[in-house]
């Protein structure tokens, strides 16, 4: 055997040893077809050449001990490890180009593009993400979610290498955080393979790939990632085959150490027709609920969004809009767009020019068409209150009539009674009857308990790792959600 042949044989043995240590999936993800091994016996040096700087950094952090152990098992020497960045081979370049591109939504009746035609998937450049973490307004309702997003965006932080699942009602900032994570990760790691898409885009592309017999090409672009962000994952509900495909995507990326961030309008355990396997993967990491912004946060959001438009809201306007638009941040963006248009009318004499700030006073707000329309609501039903309270606290409505003193059941009973007194004309005996209680004194006690908690203003912990909130803010948030449901 020649010296060159012997060296090649040692390199292959080291690669085989590493494959056995890591397992075939993890080895294929980081080494197979993209890394080359070269052992030099003279100085006991193992040189591993990888396609890009991000791969080098990741392998250095996560696989250096494995590489040394693999080399030692073959050479019986303590080796010096050297990681180098070299040219990508053709196969890896093609795969990386596909993976590193953002998906454009494909229509179900359109054929999927083959790997040789990557034009369907434009690169997800940093400036293609609308939102940034630096522009996110924080408050008690979203502080934990924001902190978790910042950690998820740091691809070098090993303590954040777990799935992050954000959930909350429409317009509380879930999409902002997902896109902000991707933008910040892209800025810090330009060579990282990052993919952001909605669950609907995933579904459409999957259907198109199946119809066009391009399933392997589809899988290449959704796997071998460094960061995967899927928005509106509740769209997968009742789509059994799509859930199976996504579960495989989730498993492969997670096994390789990719960062996975998901968002939904509900807790994974409360998404209808979600497979138990998918639910278990979602709850394995950090599940964080994003609540509607409280009064102070709404004022901060109003101020920040107005500033970006070149508007300055007078204090009376902040109070007026903060009290009126209590729900989605999108509603706030909409009303500010209307105010901007009204303030820019020629007859107002303050047309918007770059660098000029438009002053928004109460008289302008009162010109908004919907501001002068009376708010007509249907009577609030007690069943609606119970459903919304129990959904927020993760308990079953049927449990409220029981005798369990579990802390979240006790809180759910108190909130249901309190909201019934605030939003309906029900008397204590009527509430007691609706809750299956023979004696209305327990209902009075539940109401008084929550009112004391509101007065004390001590934060309470929410279930499923959703952080803490004051009783007042929780009651106000549930009240707004109930009124919207009855509108």
Word description of this protein:
The strands form 4 sheets. A 5-stranded parallel beta sheet has the order 5-6-7-4-8, with helices on both faces. A 3-stranded mixed beta sheet has the order 1-2-3. The protein has 487 residues and is α/β, with parallel strands linked by helices. The protein folds into 4 domains: 3-88, 2-Layer Sandwich (GMP Synthetase, Chain A, domain 3); 95-289, P-loop containing nucleotide triphosphate hydrolases (Rossmann fold, 3-Layer(aba) Sandwich), CATH 3.40.50; 295-372, Helicase, Ruva Protein, domain 3 (Orthogonal Bundle); 382-486, DnaA protein, C-terminal DNA-binding domain (Chromosomal Replication Initiator Protein Dnaa, Chain: A, Orthogonal Bundle), CATH 1.10.1750.10. The longest helix has 23 residues, at 53-75. The N and C termini lie far apart (83 Å). The radius of gyration is 28 Å and the shape is globular. It has 19 helices and 12 strands. The chain has helices at residues 3-22, 24-30, 53-75, 90-99, 143-153, 174-188, 199-211, 215-222, 240-255, 276-283, 295-308, 315-324, 329-343, 362-365, 382-393, 407-423, 428-434, 441-456, 471-486, and strands at residues 36-40, 45-50, 80-85, 164-167, 194-198, 227-231, 259-264, 286-289, 311-313, 358-360, 460-461, 468-469. Helix 5 (143-153) runs parallel beside helix 6 (174-188), helix 11 (295-308) crosses helix 13 and helix 17 (428-434) packs across helix 18 (441-456).
As a whole number of angstroms, the C-alpha radius of gyration is 28 Å
Q: Estimate the strand proportion.
A: 5-15%
Helicity level: 40-55%
* Overall number of strands: 12
Terminal Cα span: 83 Å
Work out the count of structural domains. 4
Note the main sheet: 5 strands, parallel
For the biggest β-sheet, the strand order reads 5-6-7-4-8
Low-confidence stretches: 87-127
CATH topology of the largest domain: Rossmann fold
Tell me the CATH superfamily of the largest domain. Answer: P-loop containing nucleotide triphosphate hydrolases
Q: In CATH's first tier, which class of the largest domain applies? A: Alpha Beta
Shape: globular
